User: Fold these one by one.
Assistant:
Number 1:
Amino acid sequence: MLDVLIPSSGAGKAILAAILLGAGCGLLGCFVVLRRVALMGDAISHAVLPGVVAGLIYSPDRSPIFIFLCAAAAGLVGAGLVRALMATTRLKSDAALGIILASFFALGIVWQSRNQQETVGVMNFLFGNVGSIDSSDLRMMMMTTSLLCVMVFFLKRPLLVVSFDEGFARGLGYPVKILNGVFYFMLTFSVVVALQAVGVVLVSAILITPAAAAYLLTDRFEKMLLLSMGFGIFAGIVGGVISAGISQIPTGPVITLAASAIFGVVYFVAPRHGVLAKLLRTSKRRRIVMRENTLKAIYQIQEAEGFAYEDVSVIMLAQKRRQTEEAVRKRCASLLKHGLVEFSEDGISLHLTSPGWKRAMELVRNHRLWELYLTNEADYAEDHVHDDAEKIEHILGPNMVRQLEQELDFPELDPHGKPIPQPQLAMQGLEPFSTP
């Protein structure tokens, strides 16, 4: 039945192998990334080498299924030993993984070097060669990948809960130990499936990189699964085609580079977690802070004069901000654009609009409330609270402000004796510091 799905051409087989590779590794890679056990995939991929060598030596007809089973058995033993080391010693996961990874890989190399004639072709498993995959390999990959897809479909929710918090999963009644065993069983099978295409050395890259790229693009796990599978399939196809077109280039490194290129693009252009998006958000936030600091300075000048005058001169504002008049005018032009200030006819002075006045009072209120909170509740010295308040005043939301006011019993003065503004009353036409 499966033979109907297997292409007859070598290129078709390579593409199908890449699709199966991307699907299997993409699925399990998402759980690996969420669990933060990326090194486990690397350890298992190296631990399977003795199994591959055993399969090549003891299989009379070099049966792919026999080699697969030997490799899977070695991988499961390696994963079990890692868990055993972590459970019975003081070693952390990185140390246990490093020991098993190195030991099993060394054992495989030594065993292969002692049986070179029987292990001809082991380099295909070390560095990958999609061109060496035949129909029997594809049948085995199709069955294994289908099994992985079915298991992930039915166990997605419990595996996801265990990946985030094992204690919470136990509280929900999930059999955590069994689920962990199932996960490492599936991880071992996905690693073994990718062996002949990517190789022992680089299989962890195709397991982790597509999932990491998908993780940067979405916060929905279902979407992450689909994206990871898509990236893995794309990287496998690109790497397989390039490797097949250029002789003497192993498949594994090319597929890995293709996956890394995908991650590199996502790393820069991801709409929420990408570098460019973060730079744009930081730049936007910086501009907002500069505008709001200028608003606050206008308010403070008016406060120092007892709110006797509505207008504030640009020169006074420049002196208050310790900036050049040109820089201040640039900031004020941004305030004008956002409807927060209005200039006088001669352009020498400006005054706050109603929205500008409200936001300026909010900033000053936030600043002084936070100073009072730090001195009263956190035992800060009065001369050590200004810098913290300068940062927090821009991000305090209405709910947090109400909570602060309630905890501080609706204060009227800050630690330095300055009145705390009440914007909600000022908007009703009352004095800036009127109290109910």
Number 2:
Amino acid sequence: MTEIKDLEPKILWKYFDEIRKIPRCSKHEEKIAEYIVNVAKQMGLEVTQDKVGNVIVRKKAKPGYENKPMITLQCHIDMVCEKNKDVQHDFSKDPINAYVDGDFVRAKGTTLGADDGIGVAACLAMMEWDGEHGPLEFLFTVDEETGMTGAFNIEKEYIKGDMLINLDSEEFGSIYIGCAGGANSDIIMPLKFEDRAGKGLKITVKGLRGGHSGVEIDKGRANSLKLMARVLYNIDARVSKVEGGDKFNAIPREAIALVQVEDEEKAKEKIKELEAAFRDEYKRSDPDITVVVENADVNKVLDKESNERVIKLLMALPHGVLAMSQEVEGLVETSTNLAKVEMDESRMHIVMSSRSSINSALDATLQTIRCASELAGCEVKEGSRYPGWKPNRDSKLLKIAEEVFKNLYSKEPEIKAIHAGLETGVIGERVGITEMISIGPDIEHPHSPDENVRISSVQKFWDYLVKLIEEIAKKW
């Protein structure tokens, strides 16, 4: 059986084979950081570590290239540690049991750690590489997977680079040039109830597909809370309870409401009409939408004022794609997700999750939510914010990256951006770098035990990275 360290390019795979043996679950990166520091010292390179554990290494330029701009190569050193239930594996000490399977490297029953282990190995290999280059800087960040702690806490004085190449993409042939920033809005509405024991209805909206509120918001999938708001508005309901959604980054798939109505049969008939309308509107994205109505007992309902504020606010709050990018065709620029509603005896809590690759557009979205909510008598708090990375098709780094790719592979790379948060956006904002791209090999099913990396794409990725570093040194 072929050993991982014998794969091509050997300079990269030998480091991947080493780091797969080192524990590096998110928030437990001490041993992998120590390994990187030791490798840098053995090579005689400048190395430091900041207060949160990020490792920064610098390599002097080859003679004749000293005055060229410094390139920062960036990756994250943590991995998602997941395993199948029937697998005995202790991530705190056991090496990843990786193996070669045709054109793929996989792991036996656990995550492989190619995300971002290949990026880490590429940085270590580039530290050793002896080609033509200007000054190089290597930024190894911690805890990307569970909070981007390293990126959020990097201090400007540690980073000297003039441009940044992130090595954490998962599609060879794609160059990423942007991502969304975001922030959550927590909306609190005080409520008043009145006793009204009697018969009522339990309404359930279900059968929706949901999905990630960033990368799948463009699929046009239904939001169960928005559908429920339409039901409540159209049947003249007095609400006892309404709730739905779970995580801020997921489009809600189910919602329930407990209500009283003046005319039960008329309400049920209207709900049937609405269910048919929903199925017609979302016949492609959510063909299994169902609105279930059951008889239920109700003890209390919202008073008239609270009832009106609840229903009208749920109707008024935005959801979905708000704007498309003018720089990258097909990319969502700005969106918001009505993510969660819960209610207790004194208040309703709503969570909105908004994203945009343009900070001013994110500001406007948050302000829209605040204005609608405050008109409904609510208190609004905005959570911690992560910055976006606005795509720039006129980037000098991008133009060189495109040219190098085309010369190597006789085709144009795909220029992409993602409607979700990336370390690149955070680092660029914190240290003031604007020339940035993100590249990587083909990695499938990251964050799961099915994770794999395509061996042939790693060779192409390395060849491309080497040539890109050389061309920047020659042409910048």
